[in-house]
Design a protein that fits this description.
The protein has about 280 residues and is of the alpha+beta class. The protein is built from nine helices and eight strands. It has helices spanning about 10-25, 55-65, 80-100, 175, 190-195, 205-210, 225-240, 240-245, 255-275; strands at about 5, 30-35, 40-45, 130-135, 135-145, 150-155, 160-165, 170. The strands form two sheets. It has a five-stranded antiparallel beta sheet, with no helix packed on it. Strands 1-3-2 form a three-stranded antiparallel beta sheet.
Length: about 280
């Protein structure tokens, strides 16, 4: 590509210069865009000044020497070097002897200035501490130190976690001791069992295989229709139709349905005890 070509647009000149640099055909890597008088744009390459050749340098030296006076005509240089060196040599000997008599300074250990003081391990292994978990504090035991600002601790009930120094504090036996767990409140089942016992057969009668004289009586005014189920089961047991008692279907899952199912099981247990006694 011609390095002296001109272009109608500046961007075309710039694009051409960058293409020459990429291809290696440009005379230099620096350039500028010159706006000519004719309105076109020209690439101006910023080339470095070429160094003179060896022959040109020798020619310049010869021309410069011809203009200088002969060496014999030049003024002789003052001979002060020997006089200046003698006192210096004389004074250096006592200084060297004195330096040799002084003990050599002890060499500093390498890297001594870079050694940092060991950080204090505030929570040794096995220390009982309190750790912050969210907004609350939990008891834990330090397992190991991970880095200068983090420890691993285990919970008494199992599990562990990593905690920063800001989330660990000393364990206080007075304020941090876990209060003894209160026994769970027993559910009030006495009234429930007492209501069920009215519809169940006495355990002694079951063990003896003795069938009661009558079926249980439903006393609830809201559930009188369940009475028919007790009466049917009792009638089947009285007639000895134990297969019908065993196959009697009880629907529903409320309290009375469960009491009827329990009454059926009591009848079957009573029959089994009666059969075993014979």
């Amino acid at each position: 590509m011609d390095t002296t070509a001109t272009f109608t647009l500046r961007k075309n000149a710039k694009r051409a210069a960058e293409a020459m640099i990429r291809k290696g055909t440009a005379p230099a890597i620096d350039y500028s865009i010159k706006h000519s008088d004719d309105g076109r744009f020209e690439i101006v390459w910023k080339t470095a000044k070429i160094a003179p050749t060896i022959g040109e340098v020798e020619t310049e030296i010869a021309e410069a020497s011809a203009d200088q006076p002969a060496a014999s005509e030049a003024e002789p240089a003052p001979q002060l070097a020997s006089a200046a060196t003698e006192p210096a040599a004389t004074d250096a000997a006592p200084q060297e002897a004195e330096a040799a008599s002084q003990p050599a300074p002890a060499a500093a250990e390498p890297g001594q200035a870079l050694i940092e003081p060991a950080s204090t391990n505030e929570w040794p292994q096995g220390t009982r501490v309190m750790v912050r978990k969210g907004k609350s504090w939990r008891e834990a035991k330090v397992v190991t130190r991970l880095d200068p600002d983090r420890w691993r601790a285990e919970y008494p009930g199992g599990g562990s976690g990593m905690f920063r120094e800001a989330d660990i504090r000393a364990y206080d036996p007075k304020s941090d001791a876990t209060p003894a767990k209160q026994p769970r409140r027993l559910k009030v089942t006495a009234s429930h069992k007492s209501s069920w016992s009215r519809y169940a057969i006495d355990p002694e009668a079951i063990a003896a295989g003795n069938l009661p004289d009558k079926a249980p009586v439903v006393t609830s005014e809201a559930n009188p229709h369940y009475q028919k189920h007790f009466d049917r089961l009792f009638a089947l047991a009285t007639t000895g139709d134990w297969d019908a008692v065993r196959d009697y279907e009880v629907k529903g899952s409320n309290s009375y349905s469960k009491m009827i199912a329990c009454y059926r099981q009591d009848l079957l247990a009573l029959h089994a005890a009666s059969e075993a006694a014979q």
